[in-house]
Design brief:
Length: 343
């Protein structure tokens, strides 16, 4: 049984990575339905939290059916991080996660996110301050290092554990790599081999199939896997991996009905949570992934990314289901690709 503090997550948990404008409550609900064991909010600016900015505060929303949930924050100032930790605690998540991995320039230039990988002593001191300022279990998500010459993650993980974090998730790239190239899990495996490490270690990066999840589980000995981009428009990846672990079988791809129904649910809850305009706009990035690989989908997708009226959008989804379900039946299930490539 893998546990973060007293939070039981099962034998080999699958975690949903925190992703800006993606891992919001509507999307988390879909992933939870498909077997995700632990989820994280979008990352939240501590400066926004302490200034009571609406967008930052709204990201604290947690619904009972999606627990356990970690709220992730990012920042660079001790005082701001400590005050934000108090605000997060009031929202009553299962844990607080610190983002030391975001590679985006506007975050890094403030020495937040992956920017702090340029100053490990500061990273450890900031973590220590947060741990001491909250009763919540504190975890960290980070990268291998700032660049190829500063991959100190084995030592860093041990130092963070020593100041009290309860788990660490590591993306197998440096900040300089951004999301390019192949994620290297070698150092993640070395952290697990370190006899002084006793907290859970989760690997992240490039897991986009059940087969790869199993291979990396066995090769690197991690306690669980965190999945990010591969889940976008594909929340079924969690059930597919779990089924493969249990049986060694690959599940058939989601049906047309399952894909359309997920898009419907996502759109409905997105509008309810964000309001009409923002809910419709932020759903547009997801449609391509929900229907990736469908033949002749472009005219429908164009309507989905240009229309604003919910009635019209739900009508287009109905049309997609009717057309592709009928094609599947008439073509013996070969009207669309059998497997959908994932980001």
């Amino acid at each position: 049984m893998v546990k973060i503090a007293n939070i039981e997550l099962g034998e080999f948990p699958l975690l949903l990575a925190p992703m800006e404008d993606v891992s919001d409550p509507p999307f988390r609900a879909l992933c939870k339905e498909q077997g995700c064991d632990m989820m994280y909010t979008e990352f939240i600016s501590v400066e926004g939290l302490i200034r009571d900015a609406h967008k930052s505060v709204q990201k604290l929303d947690i619904y009972p059916e999606e627990r356990p949930v970690g709220i992730q924050i990012f920042g660079a100032k001790h005082e701001s991080m400590m005050r934000a930790a108090e605000i997060v605690e009031e929202a009553q998540p299962e844990l607080l996660d610190i983002n030391y991995g975001c590679p985006v320039k506007k975050v890094v230039c403030r020495m937040a996110g992956a920017g702090i990988l340029q100053d490990i002593d500061r990273m450890v001191a900031l973590t220590d301050a947060v741990v001491k300022s909250t009763n919540l279990p504190v975890t960290v998500k980070t990268r291998l290092g700032w660049d190829e010459n500063t991959k100190y993650i084995v030592e860093v993980a041990e130092r963070l554990q020593d100041v009290g974090i309860k788990a660490i998730s590591i993306h197998g790239r440096t900040r300089k790599q951004m999301y390019k190239g192949e994620a290297d899990w070698t150092l993640i495996g070395k952290i697990k081999e370190n006899p002084r490490m006793h907290i859970p270690v989760f690997g992240n990066g490039d897991i986009n199939s059940p087969q790869k999840a199993k291979l990396y589980r066995e090769r690197y000995g991690v306690d669980g896997i965190m999945i990010g981009r591969a889940s976008i428009g594909n929340p079924w990846i969690f059930r597919e991996i779990k089924h493969y672990f249990k049986t060694g079988e690959i599940l058939p791809p989601p049906t047309v009905h399952e894909r359309v129904n997920a898009a419907r649910q996502h759109l409905k809850h997105s509008i309810e949570w964000k309001g009409l305009k923002l809910g419709v706009l932020e759903m547009r990035r997801h449609y391509t992934n929900y229907f990736r690989g469908f033949k002749h989908i472009k005219p429908y997708r164009m309507k989905l990314v240009t229309e604003f009226e919910p009635e019209v959008l739900f009508g287009v989804l109905d049309q997609i289901e009717e057309r592709y379900a009928n094609e599947d039946r008439s073509a013996g299930g070969t009207a669309r690709v059998e497997t959908l490539p994932v980001m």
